[in-house]
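Reproducibility note. Readers wishing to regenerate the assembly model reported in the main text can use the exact inputs given here. Chain order matters: entities are listed in the order in which they were concatenated for prediction.
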Amino acid sequence: MAMTAATAEPVSADRPARKMADKTLWLLAPGVIWMVLFLVVPILMMVYVSFWTQTTFAITPTLTIKSWVTFFSSDTYLSALWTTIRIWLIVLAATLIIGYPAALFVGLFVRNKTLQTVLLVLCVIPFWTSFLIRVLAWRPMLGKEGAINLILQGVGLINKPIEVLLFSELSVIIGMTQIYCVFMVGPIAFMMGRIDQSVIEAAQDLGAGFWRIFRTIILPLSMPGVVVGAIFVSVMVLGEFATSAALSGRKVNLLGNIIVTQVGSLKWAFAAVAGVVLTILMGIVVAALLRVVDLRKEL
Amino acid sequence: MAAVLQLSQVTKAYGALRALDGIDISLPDNAYISLLGPSGSGKTILLRVIAGFETPDSGSVLFKGERVEAVPPHRRNIGFVFQNFALFPHLSVAKNIAFGLENRELNPITDSTVVRARVKDIVALVGLTGLEDRGVTQISGGQRQRVALARTLITEPSLVLLDEPLGALDANLRTRMRAELRTIRERCGVTFLHVTGSETEALAMGDAVLVLDRGRIAQADDADTVYNQPRSASVARFLNCYNLFEGQLSNDEFVTSVGKFPLQGQKADARGQPAYAIRYDRISVRPLASPVTAEEVRLEGTFIADEYSGAAINSFFSLDDGRVIEVESHLSQAAPQTCVPHSRYALVWKRQNALVYA
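Running the prediction on these inputs yields the following structure tokens for the assembly.
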């Protein structure tokens, strides 16, 4: 009897709250509808199309795995997959190596909040120009007769231009690192800024030197920022095609470039296969990164 | 008693502001010292100079007989308990406590069994047994305070600086932690320098009380002396239990805007601004007509309101120039005069109970 009384009470008190919760769910409706229409349905469509029958001039909705077999037995596609993974890893490492110290400086050593904001805004300045201009600006910089080669020759460090600077994998990596570095700096600097100065002073007071404090306090506390930054950079680099198209002189083919070419020649099924592969790859990368740190706990 | 810490003529300025203006202190070994200062008196900066987070502009800091101004904080072995505790948010209670032992630059302990044993001892000392594996965000404020203390004590510093250690706790817990801090200190046998803005805390905790006023040590005495004989008008003001009158000394009288107080040979302390101080509980309230003896000083005031605090009643009277004076009547003594608002009363005190600064 006592138990029924005890349970009956909260239910009746609970009801208005639950009704409220039912109503608030409607707030999600526009977002959910949008995502279903323009994300979930297209992805399912892409998976479906990847099993269609592709002939030179037409595509028919007869299911086959021919496109998949072609993709995984072709050196061109597999090497594009491998190039994509390689460039992604190199760019990820480069943005981390360049971005982390910068974020450490901005987030932790610049005590003045205004100056901190100014420095972060400076990082974003390249985004005030269009993507194409940013990428193309590398050409006069890296080219055979570009600024870097001219300066190095002028100083006398080299006597003939370094040709590998432009239209190579290196130029793609340089270009991507420059563009995506800020996406690494931002989240890390944000996490650094949240580290209480007195926590570091406490570690110092307990006798730890700088590197110890870095390893035991700063690095673990900034890991969520690293993971978020890495997710940003990874998703963007894996889906890249424009930088490689503009800076590699068609020598570097990423999965993104394959998709563009296939779509251009109306090979929808192949493009869909490459798209599915790319989506799965991104999914794996993001899932793996999220396992490094429990973001829900940290943020 | 050997001095564990000696500061002489330590100054530190921020622009035009002299945050520390020639500090001289000497802290004995194995003692509880409280440092009382209002906000802005430079008490946190003083602690930071001692711990090594700030470098003094001039003067010397001697720790166990050696000059340490140029020694970085992590090589000083002076403990610092932060006001907000500054626990490592990503580490468990036990890991927080073990941090100093495992990560210090000077002879770190790498043997995990030794670390575990030491952590176990200190956890028992501060009363945290059973919470070792909790995250520091999953424990209460008082427990966090204990973790902060344990984390510092485990490194066996000769001096522990506590920056308003009870400030972040609620009133109930604060009183309990007071007693506990003292017991823990006695068991460790180290010197605690406890900084606080609360005069009751400073008087209750310290074997000796240092009073900091605008970057200078205004008084360094035992609690009883500080309370009964503040050395200057500003110290009296911090104690929050003195009515202060500004004025001038002239012809054996102290002349203020509310009247002349006869001194009759009472000596004035010559420190800082001239003032006449009378403690709240030294004043008695009488009807206007009642007579006064030659020993007594009399002032008239209008009763405004009173405040009941259990053991005492604090009454407020406004004087003719608008200033408010406070009278504290202890209820354990005779039942105090019941006052009617807006009526005038005589406020009377014995001449020798007043403190005169000129």
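We highlight two features of this model. Chain A has one domain: 76-298. The domain at 76-298 of chain A is CATH 1.10.3720.10 (MetI-like fold).
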